[in-house]
């Protein structure tokens, strides 16, 4: 589980976001120029890219939400333990640390939404003439 170590969590998210980070490159290599239009099937290339994008978004969202659930549960248990031992300094430090991590994880959901919107906008601009995903 990657949730206990926030830096490891961020490293894994960064690796998972490679496709979104390089979306312009991916789109440019998927969409043929005028001279290559007959050699490349742009609609299937756009569809494949779309499916990869959606899969990546879904996987990252699940990872983030799972870590939020795990961390929120840890915070709940630490709060209960603090009620039993209000003078335990180490327990208080752990609680504050977990609460901070929970806020950071919740922020990652907002970051994910921004990344998703940016990628979707770029995808639509480049692929709209070749592939239109079904609305869900």
Description of the molecule:
There is one protein chain. The protein is rod-shaped, with a radius of gyration of 21 Å. The chain has five helices and no strands. By secondary structure, the protein is mainly α. It has one domain. The longest helix has 43 residues, at 42-84.
Q: Which percent band covers the strand fraction? A: under 5%
Shape: rod-shaped
Give the terminus-to-terminus CA distance.
31 Å
- The number of helical runs is 5
Give the C-alpha Rg. Answer: 21 Å
Number of strands: 0
The main pleated sheet reads as:
none
- Write down the overall mean pLDDT: 91
Helix content estimate: over 70%
Order of helices and strands: HHHHH
Number of domains: 1
* Global structural class: mainly alpha
The stretches of 5 or more residues where confidence is low (pLDDT under 50) are none
